[in-house]
């Protein structure tokens, strides 16, 4: 069964948490000194890495939780809290500690070719918040028969992300700091709403168990 609203929710959540628009300046700063051909090659490697990370989170996430004896209800609550913290950072216009590597971890100019995997793919794009969101969506899709909707939302977002990164050298000339700041705050609101939904769903299951 295809559910367009669920596919749109997956797309919106991934767009909010990875925020291709806000990450274009980050991408350009990480690849500073490289020519446009090298930047596009880095973009394609990053897109491949993000795709693999998303698929692994969706397919193996629930199994990994079971291995550690963690229920999806527990993880949904913890993941929702983590996503909410990221959203609050976005609303305040600051970089999330969960998705932003420290200054000591940033590669130098000589290592510009290595930034595709770290820190661009992990943790900037596929960080703890992204992984938590994907595991919750994967469990929901499997339980409700919405795998096709989940796949559609994921593929649509990855296509947009790939286009954004590939076109980053050209977009960077026209993207102002104000546009980036406004987008980050708007996506923070969307992400906060999704985080609250995740936590409330977990609390509802918990209260049903307590109240019998």
Walk me through what this model shows.
- The protein is mainly α.
- It has one domain.
- It is 77% helix and 0% strand.
- Helix 3 runs antiparallel to helix 7 and helix 6 packs antiparallel against helix 7.
- The longest helix has 35 residues.
- It starts with a helix and ends with a helix.
- The model has no long low-confidence stretch (mean pLDDT 86).
Descriptive tags:
single chain, mainly alpha
How many β strands by DSSP?
0
Low-confidence stretches: none
Backbone structural class: mainly alpha
User: Strand-and-helix sequence, N→C?
Assistant: HHHHHHHHH
> Which sheet architecture does the biggest sheet show?
none
Terminal CA distance: 32 Å
Beta-strand share of residues: under 5%
What would the average pLDDT be, to the nearest integer?
86
From the alpha carbons, calculate the radius of gyration and give it in angstroms.
Answer: 18 Å
Count of folded domains: 1
Give the overall silhouette. Answer: globular
Oligomer: single chain
Count the DSSP helices. 9
């Amino acid at each position: 069964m295809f559910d367009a609203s669920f596919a749109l929710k997956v797309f919106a959540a991934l767009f909010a948490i990875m925020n291709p628009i806000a990450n274009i300046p980050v991408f350009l700063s990480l690849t500073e000194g490289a020519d446009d051909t090298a930047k596009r090659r880095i973009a394609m490697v990053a897109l491949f890495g993000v795709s693999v990370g998303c698929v692994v989170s969706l397919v193996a996430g629930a199994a990994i939780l079971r291995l550690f004896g963690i229920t999806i209800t527990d993880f949904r609550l913890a993941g929702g809290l983590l996503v909410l913290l990221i959203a609050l950072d976005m609303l305040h216009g600051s970089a999330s500690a969960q998705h932003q590597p420290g200054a000591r971890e940033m590669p130098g100019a000589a290592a510009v070719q290595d930034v595709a995997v770290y820190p661009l793919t992990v943790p900037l794009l596929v960080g703890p918040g992204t992984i938590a969101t994907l595991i919750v969506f994967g469990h929901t899709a499997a339980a409700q028969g919405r795998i096709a909707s989940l796949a559609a939302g994921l593929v649509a977002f990855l296509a947009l992300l790939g286009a954004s990164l590939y076109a980053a050298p050209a977009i960077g000339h026209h993207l102002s700091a104000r546009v980036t700041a406004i987008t980050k705050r708007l996506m923070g609101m969307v992400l906060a709403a999704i985080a609250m939904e995740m936590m409330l769903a977990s609390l509802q299951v918990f209260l049903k168990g307590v109240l019998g």
